[in-house]
């Protein structure tokens, strides 16, 4: 903003912000549903109140022009949102002064520069101009001494590889965009090895006296703080603004009424303002003012992020904070169409497994590593050791046991491994622990290359069902050990779900009439609900032969003989509505860098992620809603590696949407990524490392 007017910034200056100014940023991205528009206004730490007010007003006017389809953000220097930071891949540079003194000065004397930039951040880089003095330095960050024709990158002795490489990317970006490629870059990684460059630094900064300071860690919100979501109803009463708390987590979508405006407070980390379609123009106009007023009333820092959201144009980040978010007439996955209001049996469209390698995004969406044609080995945990299971009983799992399932498949001519840890609902804590420890040993035997998947009974992932070719049977309790302590029940009832070898499982349910469901097939007799398909009946017959060798009578719903009800302890009401498939928003996968080192669990989101964002010294978490991937870099530290699973469980536990704690957790190691992981990344390069 120049003299209270919006003036376009030249493209080569994108990412450079003057601390005395305010800026408006418009970002448009094509999506499967059209386009997503974000409007940000950025406040420099030395900008005037008038400029800040004008920037907010311009954003509101732009939103009107865009018919209320934009998500609006208030950004404060040094505290920008992850979405904002994702636009400037090489980093953000803060310059002293304002545009009036700045632009012309930079253009005319391109090389007549002497400044010191303090570079911070690993995933999101920012560079702040600091005093030209050794006092500005510390041991843990990167510093750039910019002398116009020469850029010297000084790496603190405690810097990580990622911080050094991000610093270099920023130095190159300054060279190419500000100096037309005509500047030399020198790097000091160890002062003793670079006497010439150190000589230049001493000429500019003088001799260094005393020790360098330790780095100050960034004050970041931890996951526990972010999980503390509260929803407030905002309205006017007798010219007074009333803010009334109406709910805490887990929040549900029906709390948002179209006639009103709401404030959602995410633990003081971020404030969202939701504006209902039918709320008054005055209410809509006052959104930012109210958010800022709310921040002051709560005593939050003035740098708190604000996001203003319009009814029907919600951001992925916002939807995330609700237990479930549904859209009208949304197609999800491959050929599954959901419509709200109508209760209908959803036809599953079969997909072609031969396409998985050619289209990794299909592997990701279908949660399939391959076509399930590989080799299986199964062990049961017995006396805390691995005991091989008889191959004739592969696919039969008992709720009182834990199992290890090793799946081996070939890709590009070499073996790849997936190691499933199946945990029975009634297994002891010792057995669950032994299962995890034995998995580590088994992984070591296979060169630490296996993808490890934690499977909780009843939450088996798609690929796990597929490898047992329709013969997956889950017994509620008991054990498959030779010496069984418990007598087997005389009557057992199994619910069979699935239409082909790739998606069928039979689960034992209480042998009572109330367990029946019209949409499924049950074994006991072969009871077929009105809503089940021919495919489901065929799969049920196959499973029935494994469960019992006796002849099975097929009974159709509504034609049950008296002895059928007697076996189930008498007739009782059961689920007879057609199954309504829950319609969940097409969830956008999210990538986070995990850090647990400070004793606080901190996650940094990488918005618009790509393979480049996976650094060798990281542990990264990829959340695809149905499963959680943990990617472990080769050079990640032992503490974070060992804490990875605990971090994933903590992430589920503290998730604002109240997530299912039994969500499968998949451990993936750098260089051994399966297709159902790489498919979430655009243009994955298998040879990068």
Automatic annotation (TrEMBL):
GO terms for biological process: actin filament severing; actin polymerization or depolymerization; barbed-end actin filament capping. GO terms for molecular function: actin filament binding; phosphatidylinositol-4,5-bisphosphate binding. Pfam families: Gelsolin (PF00626). Keywords: Actin capping, Actin-binding, Calcium, Cytoplasm, Cytoskeleton, Repeat. InterPro entries: ADF-H/Gelsolin-like_dom_sf (IPR029006), Gelsolin-like_dom (IPR007123), Gelsolin-like_dom_sf (IPR036180), Villin/Gelsolin (IPR007122). One of its GO terms (cellular component) is cytoplasm. SUPFAM superfamilies: Actin depolymerizing proteins, C-terminal, gelsolin-like domain of Sec23/24. Its main location: cytoplasm. It is found in: Cytoplasm, Cytoskeleton. Residues 4-84, 125-191, 247-319, 386-465, 601-677 form the Gelsolin-like domain. Belongs to the villin/gelsolin family. This is Villin-1. It comes from Chlamydotis macqueenii (Macqueen's bustard).
């Amino acid at each position: 903003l120049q003299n209270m007017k919006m003036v376009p910034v030249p493209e080569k200056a994108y990412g450079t912000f003057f601390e005395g100014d305010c800026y408006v940023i418009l970002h448009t991205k094509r999506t499967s549903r059209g386009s997503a528009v974000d409007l940000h206004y950025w406040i420099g730490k030395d900008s005037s109140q008038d400029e800040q007010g004008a920037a907010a007003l311009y954003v509101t006017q732009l939103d009107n022009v865009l018919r209320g389809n934009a998500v609006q953000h208030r950004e404060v220097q040094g505290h920008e949102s992850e979405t904002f930071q994702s636009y400037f891949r090489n980093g953000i540079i803060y310059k002293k002064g304002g545009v009036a003194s700045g632009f012309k000065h930079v253009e005319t004397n391109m090389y007549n520069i002497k400044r010191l930039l303090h570079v911070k951040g690993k995933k999101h880089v920012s560079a702040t101009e600091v005093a030209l003095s050794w006092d500005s330095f510390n041991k843990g960050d990167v510093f750039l001494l910019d002398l116009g024709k020469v850029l010297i990158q000084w790496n603190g002795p405690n810097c990580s590889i990622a911080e050094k490489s991000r610093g270099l990317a920023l130095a190159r970006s300054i060279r190419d965009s500000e100096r037309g490629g005509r500047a030399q870059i020198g790097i000091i990684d160890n002062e003793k090895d670079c006497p010439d460059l150190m000589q230049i630094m001493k000429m500019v900064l003088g001799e260094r006296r005393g020790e360098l300071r330790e780095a100050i860690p960034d004050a970041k919100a931890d996951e526990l703080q972010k999980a503390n979501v509260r929803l407030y109803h905002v309205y006017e009463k007798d010219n007074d603004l009333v803010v009334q708390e109406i709910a805490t987590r887990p929040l549900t979508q029906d709390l948002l009424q179209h006639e009103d405006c709401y404030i959602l407070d995410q633990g003081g980390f971020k404030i969202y303002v939701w504006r209902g379609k039918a709320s008054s123009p005055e209410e809509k106009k006052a959104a930012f003012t109210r958010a800022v007023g709310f921040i002051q009333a709560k005593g939050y820092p003035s740098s708190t992020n604000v996001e203003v959201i319009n009814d029907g144009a919600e951001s992925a980040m916002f939807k995330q904070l609700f237990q479930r978010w549904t859209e009208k007439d949304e197609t999800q996955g491959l050929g599954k169409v959901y419509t709200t209001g109508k209760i209908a049996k959803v036809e599953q469209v079969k997909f072609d497994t031969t396409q998985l390698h050619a289209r990794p995004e299909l592997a990701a969406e279908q949660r399939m590593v391959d076509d399930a044609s590989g080799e299986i080995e199964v062990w049961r945990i017995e006396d805390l050791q691995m005991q091989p299971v008889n191959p004739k009983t592969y696919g039969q799992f008992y709720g009182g046991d834990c199992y290890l399932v090793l799946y081996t498949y070939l890709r590009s001519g070499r073996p790849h491994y997936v190691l499933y840890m199946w945990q029975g609902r009634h297994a002891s804590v010792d057995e669950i622990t032994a299962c995890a420890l034995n998995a580590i040993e088994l992984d070591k035997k296979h060169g630490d290359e296996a993808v490890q998947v934690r499977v909780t009974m009843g939450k088996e992932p798609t690929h796990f069902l597929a490898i047992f070719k329709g013969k997956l049977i889950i017994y509620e309790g008991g054990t498959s050990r030779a010496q069984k302590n418990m007598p087997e029940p005389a009557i057992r009832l199994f619910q069979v779900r699935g239409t082909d070898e790739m998606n069928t499982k039979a689960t034992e349910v209480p042998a009572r009439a109330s367990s029946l469901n019209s949409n499924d097939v049950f074994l006991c007799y072969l009871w077929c609900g009105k809503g089940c398909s021919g495919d489901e009946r065929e799969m049920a017959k196959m499973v029935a032969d494994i469960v019992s060798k006796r002849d099975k009578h097929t009974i159709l719903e509504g034609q049950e003989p008296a002895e059928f009800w007697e076996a189930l302890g008498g007739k009782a009401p059961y689920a007879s509505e057609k199954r309504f498939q829950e319609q969940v928003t097409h969830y956008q996968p999210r990538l986070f860098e995990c850090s647990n080192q400070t004793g606080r669990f901190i996650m940094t989101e990488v918005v618009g992620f790509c393979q480049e964002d996976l650094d060798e010294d990281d542990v990264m978490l990829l959340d695809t809603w149905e499963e959680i991937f943990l990617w472990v870099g080769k050079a990640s530290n032992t503490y974070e590696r060992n804490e990875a699973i605990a971090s994933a469980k903590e992430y589920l536990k503290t998730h604002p949407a109240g997530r299912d704690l039994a969500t499968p957790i998949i451990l993936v190691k750098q260089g051994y990524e399966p297709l159902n992981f790489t498919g979430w990344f655009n243009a994955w390069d298998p040879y990068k490392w």
